[in-house]
């Protein structure tokens, strides 16, 4: 979920990327001015974020994972991680956490170089990853603000029951909303929340149209490397805003026009000349060498047509939409439906469907050393997807924001071997 004012500056920019960059920069600038303007903020996480609810109180969301990945793209994460490790955080801890803590201990200067305000509230929506809880336990010791936790039941058997929904709605009504009222000094305004949720649904429709455009051949988008730009506003601070609606409308127009012209995706070196491979990717990307990583794929004509990472902040392509007629219920369903809250069989089912629906050549997993939430079970998932689709799987390893775990030569070798395997398989089919 980057903006484009980072070390990927040589990346060819689409208009939507420039628009997105400006939105994110303006958000950071507003946060930096908070001590003068009196704007209050809520630190919260991407999966299960309650952006519309937060914004309906005129509070500003701050997403620590976004700060970490943005810091990594600007080459700052190495030093922040070193600060956290000096404080005793182990090498195996999620590097988003260490990057965030290092940033905080180094003056809380955000990725754009402006100081971030301390949180007025820590709001933890607990969706699947245990690290989220530990992360805010640490922050709780550092700040004096209130903390509220929304416990989101895990979708162990792949369904959301009425009692699960009620359980989350009750917490929203009895715990989260009173906390937001107290921090903001405003009363809960359900009409305002409904308006925001209606805007969310419009933006979600357009995002899904963009993601589904990858069914075309050639695909007009890359749904992983390009995809992280596309999800930026809706997964971070902008869901429910007019800017998000405008951004996704413009993005959809841009992508549909590329599709009409039969063009491939924009890559770091400009439009892709020929689509040679269509891949589904599981796992987050590496952020410290994002451009180099992307180029390895683009240089081979490998396009990612679907990815699970672009679903961490909402699985909209499976049909979920925020619903203004059921405001709290739909927020509850959103939290429970996030990718990190889905069981392994559900994840396998999604991957198999992506391979079939997008006619992909196979599944490639980018296993992230320090992210247990994604990495656990990935080899089993790979074998299952291979078995169910008959298409080959590949496996590479890197890290989110720790540059020590990005071995370019190793990744390139493995990627090339995997693509050769696909070619051999194709040759075998046509022999
Ligand atoms: S372990 Fe993975 S899912 Fe959990 S906070 Fe870290 S990066 Fe996010």
Question: Explain this structure to me?
Answer:
By secondary structure, the protein is of the alpha/beta class. It has one domain. 51% of the residues lie in helices and 11% in strands. The protein is built from 17 helices and 10 strands. Strands 2-1-3-4 form a 4-stranded parallel β-sheet, with helices on both faces. Helix 12 links the parallel strand 7 and strand 8 (302-307). Helix 1 (15-32) runs parallel beside helix 10 (227-235) and helix 8 packs across helix 13 (327-337). The longest helix has 23 residues, at 162-184. The N and C termini lie far apart (43 Å). Iron/sulfur cluster (SF4) binds next to helix 7 and helix 15.
DSSP helix count?
A: 17
Largest beta sheet, briefly? 4 strands, parallel
Percent of residues in helical segments? Answer: 40-55%
Largest beta sheet: strand ordering: 2-1-3-4
Terminal Cα span? 43 Å
The overall pLDDT average reads 93
What low-confidence regions span 5 or more consecutive residues with pLDDT below 50? 3-11
Counting structural domains, the number is 1
State which percent range the strand residues make up. 5-15%
What Rg, in angstroms, do the CA atoms define? 21 Å
SS-based class: alpha/beta
Unique bound compounds: iron/sulfur cluster
Number of strands: 10
């Amino acid at each position: 979920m980057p903006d484009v004012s980072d070390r990927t500056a040589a990346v060819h920019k689409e208009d939507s990327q420039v628009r997105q960059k400006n939105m994110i920069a303006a958000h950071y600038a507003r946060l930096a001015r908070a001590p003068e303007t009196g704007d209050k903020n809520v630190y919260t996480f991407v999966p299960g974020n309650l952006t519309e609810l937060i914004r309906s109180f005129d509070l500003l969301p701050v997403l620590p994972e976004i700060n970490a990945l943005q810091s990594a793209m600007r080459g700052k994460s190495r030093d922040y991680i070193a600060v956290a490790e000096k404080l005793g955080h182990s090498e195996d801890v999620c590097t988003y956490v260490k990057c965030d803590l290092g940033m905080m201990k180094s003056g809380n200067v955000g990725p754009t170089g402006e100081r971030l305000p301390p949180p007025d509230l820590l709001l933890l929506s607990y969706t699947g990853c245990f690290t989220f809880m530990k992360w805010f336990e640490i922050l709780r010791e550092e700040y004096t603000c209130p903390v509220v936790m929304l416990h989101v039941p895990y979708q162990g058997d792949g369904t959301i029951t009425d009692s699960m929904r009620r359980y989350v709605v009750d917490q929203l009504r009895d715990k989260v909303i009173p906390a937001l009222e107290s921090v903001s000094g405003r009363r809960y305004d359900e009409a305002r929340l409904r308006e925001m949720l209606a805007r969310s649904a419009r933006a979600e429709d357009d995002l899904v149209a963009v993601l589904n455009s990858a069914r075309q051949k050639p695909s007009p988008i890359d749904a992983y490397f390009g995809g992280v730009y596309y999800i930026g506003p809706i997964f971070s601070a902008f869901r429910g805003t007019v800017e998000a609606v405008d951004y996704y409308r413009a993005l959809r127009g841009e992508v549909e026009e590329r599709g009409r012209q039969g063009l491939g995706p924009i890559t770091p070196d400009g439009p892709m000349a020929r689509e040679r491979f269509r891949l589904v990717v599981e796992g987050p990307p590496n952020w410290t060498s994002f451009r180099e990583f992307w180029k390895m794929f683009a240089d081979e004509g490998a396009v990612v047509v679907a990815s699970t990472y672009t679903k961490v902040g909402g699985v909209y392509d499976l049909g979920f939409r925020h619903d203004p007629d059921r405001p709290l219920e739909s927020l509850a369903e959103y939290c429970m439906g996030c990718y990190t809250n889905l069981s392994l069989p559900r994840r396998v089912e999604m991957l198999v469907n992506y391979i079939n629906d997008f006619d992909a050549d196979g599944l490639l997993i980018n296993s992230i050393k320090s992210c247990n939430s994604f990495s656990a079970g990935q080899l089993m998932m790979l074998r299952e997807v291979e078995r169910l689709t008959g298409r080959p799987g590949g496996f590479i390893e890197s890290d989110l924001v720790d540059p020590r775990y990005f071995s370019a030569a190793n990744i390139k070798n493995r990627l090339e071997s995997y693509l050769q395997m696909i070619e051999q398989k194709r040759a075998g089919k046509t022999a």
